[in-house]
Amino acid sequence: xxxxxxxxxxxxxxxxxxxxxxxxxxVEAGVTNKVNYSKDVIYQIVTxxxxxxxxxxxxxxxxxSQNCSDLHKYCGGDWQGIINKMNDGYLTDLGITALWxxxxxxxxYALHPSGYTSYHGYWARDYKKTNPYFGNFTDFDxxxxxxxxxxxxxxxxxxxxxxxxxxxxxxxxxxxxxxYNNGALLGNYSNDRNKLFHHNGGxxxxxxxxxxxxxxxxxxxxDLNNKVIDQYLKESIKLWLDKGIDGIRVDAxxxxxxxxQTSLMSDIYSHKPVFTFGEWFLGSGEVDPQNxxxxxxxxxxxxxxxxxxxxxxxxxxxxxxxxxxxxxxxNTEKDYDEVIDQxxxxxxxxxxxxxxxxxxxxxxxxxxxxxLTSRGVPTIYYGxxxxxxxxxxxxxxxxxxTFDRSTNSYKITSKLASLRQRNSALGYGNTTERxxxxxVYIYERKFGNNVVxxxxxxxxxxxxxxxxxxxxPQGNYTDELQQLLDGNAITxxxxxxxxxxxxxANGVAVWQVTKPSTTPLIGHVGPMIGKAGNTVTVSGEGFxxxxxxxxxxxxxxxxxxxxxxxxxxxxxxxxxxxxxxxxVNATNAKSPAYEKFEVLTGNQVSVxxxxxxxxxxSGTNIYIVGNVSELGNWDPNKAIGPMFNQVMYKYPxxxxxxxxxxGKNLEYKYIKKDQxxxxxxxxxxxxxxxxxxxxxxxxxTNW
Length: 703
Ligand code: NOJ
Ligand code: NOJ
Ligand code: CA
Ligand code: CA
Hints:
By secondary structure, the chain is α+β, with helices and mostly antiparallel strands. The chain contains 14 helices and 40 strands. One calcium ion binds next to loops.
């Protein structure tokens, strides 16, 4: 819980701020921290399918399906419906603290020849207008203010990869990908005079490069290196940030360059920092180092498909067991620099629903209990708490049938969402496997002296658990789920051993102790990239009520606000690069370091670097390295690449879109690097280049 003092201070500050600008006073309660979601539970809503709160805004004609019998069409759900479900207590009692809603912007009105519509919000037409079937800006403002008054954050979906379905040669197909800037036409897909889009055909998903620079299905793919597109998308997201949104889910991040997306993140974090996570789809069993690189370097978190696919294969499909799950937990803890910032789930709108019928309700309950006690930011797909079923899209996007608050899943979610807020072990703690066989997994989350021990038995027989040990202090512990999943109590001895017990068939038990630290302990820092002067929030425990110091390496940062659990600072003017953060309290006790904050050189722009006639032997690739942190500070191990050479330009020309400091004299060289790390440098003087102050650029030289 945030202290009352800080809330009052924040309200007072925003009051002064708004009065100075003589704007209407907006008092935001409960959502002061828009960059830390680790203690939150997100509820994902397909806006059109949740609740129709205003039938007057429903579409008429062929794109509407009156009783939602045609799941490809609009069914009437809107922001008023979501507001109603906050006001009547359904969402608040569920305990969720964030709502991820469909992209709110205006979408195409036309019917796709296959009978599809834009009900899902992924076919944008004008990012500066609302989708009228969800509501107008007044409705959106009320959605945000209602949510904030209840301590709920609003996350919007955002598709900067594409506009809408289009074909190269048929301007009458859907709306020809047309894009508008607050009503003014920017361009169309066929006859694309201003070159806003890529025209390289559809991707066959054969490589990362192919996925980025060709169309995803028939969706008109933006050329993010085009200045008009770059500026328009960055302006648009600021409009929604200014509307008060608290988070962004970015669609299809695998299909856009990491460079452009880093420049976007830098823009967002310099304007109004909010937690941002991308969708990088991974199939069952898929692990992709490029996905980890993106999560660690771009400034954006990712949806945790490794977690999602693994929990599904253990508890839904029964094709893996808890050893596989534990491997995934251990590997992801290593592969993601901030594993607690990745967004976990058990199902979503792009895969079959977890529940398959009444017989699977218990599996859903167990999966939710594991989700809500595991590392990462848990997301519950609307209707999972009602055991909604459905196969692939659009069957998995059926309307909510009931809003029943007595289901087991609803109660489990409510209990564990509340525990996540109270016990920091769930939000910030690491994970230790304490007992395992193929049917049983007992894992401990621990942050300081806060401990949560969770035991799950996915078999149909009781299991005897002997020789379990834990960090829970000596004592008797009852099940936090209050037997909703047949959990038992345990007795812990002075040496941490647990008296043997029976873990019930298909049972889950959660035992915990909440003991906040009295010395500084950092649980979370957000965001983890930013230029000097940006605001960063440090969360944790034991900071003390009196102001102390926050260190970037050995440099202290300006303090904006300070409480026992939350500190806001400004990134100090230090040389760009990676820094460890630590908090020193007023009596000089210092926290362990929170590692690898990346200080950027300054504002960022996306630049396409290219080099001609760079011939290589197979297995050798071209990289670029230069004199700023963003270009690896002349360290070949940190050089950017491997560069691309197949779509926008072809071998022996290589290219790559990179986020570099704006308006800066850069020095760089291209290098050839083979699989063993052997490096051949370009000869001659360093190449020089001045990046633009804003916008994008392309710079191509000869090897
Ligand atoms: C991923 C979304 O989640 C999916 O539903 C959508 O169709 C595609 N991206 C394209 O926007
Ligand atoms: C080392 C490289 O060998 C050289 O080519 C390059 O110019 C310098 N780094 C940059 O100072
Ligand atoms: Ca409606
Ligand atoms: Ca793309």
